[in-house]
Amino acid sequence: MIYQIMAITLKELKVLWLDREALALLFAMPVFFILVMSFALEGVFEAGSKGHPIEILVIRPDGDPLVDQAIADLKRMEGLILIETYEGVPLTADRAEQLIGRGVYPLALFFPERYAEQVLINSKDPPKEKPIVYLISDPAMNLQLLATVKGAIQGAIERRVLLARIPQRLKEMFGTFEGMEGQLAEMLGDTNAGERARSGVDFVHAFPKGFSVKRRPTATEQNVPAYTIFGVFFIVLTLASSFLQEKKDGTFQRILAAPLSKTALLIGKLLPYYLVNLIQIVVMFCIGVVVFGIRLGHLPALIILSLALAAAANGLGLLVAALGKTEPQVNGLSVLLAITLSALGGMMVPTFIMPDLMKTLSLFTPHAWALAGYHDMIIRGLGAKKVLTEVAILLGFASLFFVIALWRFRFDE
Amino acid sequence: MMTFILTVEDLWKRYAQTDAVRGLTFEISKGEFFGLLGPNGAGKSTTIGLLSGLIEPTRGHIAISGFDLFSSPMKAKAKLGLVPQSFALYPTLCARDNLVFFGRIYGLKGKRLKERITRVLEIVQLTDRAHQTVATFSNGMKRRLNIAAGLLHEPEILVLDEPTVGIDPQSRNAILESIHSLNQSGVTVLYTTHYIEEAQRLCDRVAILDQGKIMALDTPTRLIQDLGRGMIEIEFNAGIDDRLLDQMKHIGAIRVADDQKRRIHIETDRTDQVSREVLELMKTRDGALKSLDISEPNLETVFIRLTGRNLRD
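Above: the input entities. Below: the structure tokens describing the complete assembly.
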């Protein structure tokens, strides 16, 4: 059986190799997307706009008037949604970090206990003990988007700090001036207020606990895995067409008339496409490393995730081969699935800026799980154990595709 | 004692509401050249699909060289060589690479594989084209390579499904010669065709198949002797009237072959005499007769007698 599987695999590789244009397309397409989309579309996304607001988790002490004011200011900002409870329960620091770590939300804002008190105590120059406000972000978050959102949040918070501290400092210097607070508040109600008084609060940006990221992700680190996955799933078209061609040419008939099990036939047919997928992944990530200087993170995690991803792509290919009865059907279905699932899975637009319904739907694509896994490794620096969930889900998708494909596959057509 | 290479017993295949194959029963002896003759849609390809294990039957038994195709499929399949109606080759590979692949899936390897490839290329006279890409082959060459692929593992029975369809007469003749030589060298052959002359020229026995059923099975000579009658096919320039039709009926057993009553067939053992009578009668109908063809008894007339239709209908 092994000998027959190898015979089919070698034949298939030879046939693939001879159709170099088709093979080149499998590689050229994701490379093209990685290069062009990374360079050209950086910053194009509209995340943070009114139509695509950013959701920010807020962890705050109760009854702090300064925090109340800062949050009220942030809530008034266009393009931001502040979330203080999750599933009806007020957020804790651990829960928020967990949600960020899992990629459910992109950002969290932590106000310390006794925030207002610390701000007011330290109104003297130079402040001795500044309160620290933490902004925790998903390491996979777009860098430019993060900078913009961070600047807006920091500005709003520091403006409130300034407004809170100035009357006290004036009192300390000149005694009480009735009605002065209101006028000062109005006078300083511009957006540059924070810039003029940065000393009242420390603003620290960090990643969730357990992430060994020492630096921020680049657009390429996000795009290379995304377009690699996009390219990997284009194997569906090549694989399904190959089955259809064999049926059309009658070679399938001849193979099935041989003393060969259907299992051996399918393994032999799928193995070369699986190998092509793995080579695709290696090539794409090499381009990422060589051209863009991305760091691959933990290699074992990368390997097991890539193996699972290629299995899911091959399973989908077999499913299309089982469902498509004619060339136009196979072509149409392959392209439809490759594009739709990629878009839905966050290959083109990050899922966290999608509406809730789309976010939920993305969980039903292998693409989203593969991308989450790659981001866990490359950007969040997680090891093999941490991506086992994604690997298991990808293998689940692969199994589901294979089971349906084998149920629907007609050898005798 | 007679050795049967292929035994088929009460074989049925039903698709939705249609029985494509209806209770086929026959045996093929070692070294025999057996023909399945029938028009398109008679069930020949379905029968080949069933015999080569590609299609599961609704019921029935098939044994190849004593191995039951359903309980010992691997052993049974190893004894059968299939030459499908389609070319069943990889057009981007060269002839040798195609044969290497098909040989390997039958378990051939190393020196044995090389020897067999050399031998089958000699049989189909394609040795000098071994390294040429199949896409550049003529249809005749593809047909020959198709046969070579079926012969690689030295099957005990070679099943050929209409192997001369779509090729020029010269290539067709070369293929028929090759198959005949193979049979002479001891290879058992099951051959499907809708060409009467091929069946008559090559087959030791012929099963006439129509609508999935064997209508008759015997040597071509006996079939023609027992069932064949001469055939006169008459074509008129316009549909004939009832009076002329009645007059024709007095001459012999006639069958109107089309709705417009422009063609009639007369079956007879006395073709010369009947054709003279027809021509005499037509003298009174100046210009009505378009053509008159006389066929001596053959497998085509046997088929018409059995089914009421032409093989090429």
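Note for the figure: Chain A has a mean pLDDT of 80.
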